[in-house]
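Case study B.
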Amino acid sequence: MLWLGANTWLFLKTFLLYSTGQQYHYLYKMLGLGLCISRASASVLNLNCSFGAAAHVSSRETRRLLDKSKTFHVACGVSICIFSVVHVSAHLANVVNFSVSYSEDFPALNLARYRGEDPKLIILTTIPGVTGVLLVLILFLMFTSSSYCVRLSNYEIFWYTHNLFIVFYVILMVHMVGGALKYQTNLEGHPPGCLRANQSSTEQQGEELEAGEDEERRCGEEAHFQPHYPQTWLWVSGPLCLYCAERFYRYIRSSDPVTIVTVIRHPCDVIELRMLKKHFKARPGQCPTENKETFGVHLRVVGDWTERFTQLLLPEPRIDLEILPMVQQRRYPKLYVDGPFGSPSEEVFNYDVSVCVAGGIGVTPFACDGWTGFRLQRLYFVWVCRELKSFYWFAELLCALHHKENRPDYFNLKLYVSQTDNLQEKYRPLTSRLLVGRPRWNLLFDEIGKTNKHKRVGVFCCGPKGISKTLHRLCNSARSSGTTFEFNKESFS
Amino acid sequence: MGKIEWAMWANEQALASGLILLTGGIVGVAGQFRGWQFAAYAIAAGAFVCLLEYPRSKRTKGTSVERTGQYCFTVCVKSFGPLTRNYYVRAFLHAALSVPAGFLLATVLGCVCLGIASIIYLAAIEVNTGTHSSKEGDSQKAR
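Model:
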């Protein structure tokens, strides 16, 4: 709401400035409404570009301040597109007016070189024109590749085109150089509209004019015009510097390669990688191994990058090769790890009661060893998978947790599987808790609400859109038990 | 890079360009600028491109997401057979359609955007050799 209000206020303020401001009187006469609309939309664009850059910063400390930054970033992006359309249309009208209403009285005010100059030529031979065209093309590429469908199917296209934003911002800062729009500097010496007064007073020499009025409107000197000082860099350079500093810091931080300790292949195309890094300090919720110095990641092998990575880590043994001596170690690729980044899941420990819902590989943000301590008194863990084999990814961890903290009032585990299959006897604590079919969220929430009356329950979801939409809706609906559910969502794409 | 389905992005771009062309054409005709006939052409060309590109084709691998209500468009497009299915035809068609729009200021943006979409279609052919055609009508709804 604050953002909407800021945009509206800025648009109206700039619009009024250009339509009523004395220093823009002559320019307004030449260009009309197009001037006001284009400048107003430009100031809104400045604001949204700076917010957009700020939302891009993803380091842990700043991300917590800009929570829900992805939605905000998308909102900024959409508004940039909309206002760009408005801005471009208004400026196209301005260019036509510059050409058609070429002013002989005030040659300094003109952008066109002569009356009736082709508007396309004006655009292509001025800095604002050329940079404007480039900006629109970059925006077009970024916008078309940001659709949900493209992100889902080909994330690389989205990623690489979105990195063009650096080019966008650099060109944006250059966009105003050249000073197409000018304002009048000597308002006292040359009140706007006085030229006409001079001409009319010479025609009506015989008539009596009031002395005061006459003096006010007489021109003392020629009108002087000055182009605007480029303002965009003031808006944009701050967040841009912040972003560059953050990237630099991340580069330094991740310049040490990690040592790969173990590589485990799990069923359903998941690879677990255990690594060791110098100066690594585990934070709450970030250490899924017993040995505190190592940390692990689980990767689902889906695209070409993950497939190639798996081939490098676990090359298929070739039958025709001789068996290598045991002394020769496996050569792993050099791996660099960047992070950690802030995420909503860290808030789990700040609630008395938390519900963590994971869909498939979405369990990874919740996979850690340190669930005890802090404020958390009760944890509900709901894990929904398609196949039974997927539970093997974290079977050891869950069983270890169960052995360590076998308190049903503290750690409540619910496993759902969409398809039936056989499960090994080794993981008995899991088999007895297995539920077939999709969870009935309404009933689950009612049950949690009854056992935790008048408490604030944090709901954390990492999984497909369907689950998170349902959970969000349930969290927002009122409960008779007086329990409030607060929804926090972790997203992957 | 070899596994990226460029045609999907080209489809999004072509649809957006069609809309831009249509809007520019409407502005050009409404303003009665010099050369407004180009704007009238742009309206027709933009509408045609939108109709052609609205059905989203099935992916070679993975789930495909349909656009809302695309079934009737799919039937129309499929009826032209290989003429609309082949990416070479689409690429050159878009390139040809975009040229006349470049003569009027209001539609020049649509021209450039459609040109870019045409280039991406050509890239889709070059990179993904073997997937020269799109398969509409068989796409399933995403889970």
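Chain A is about 45% helix and 15% strand. The remaining cases will be described in the next quarterly update.
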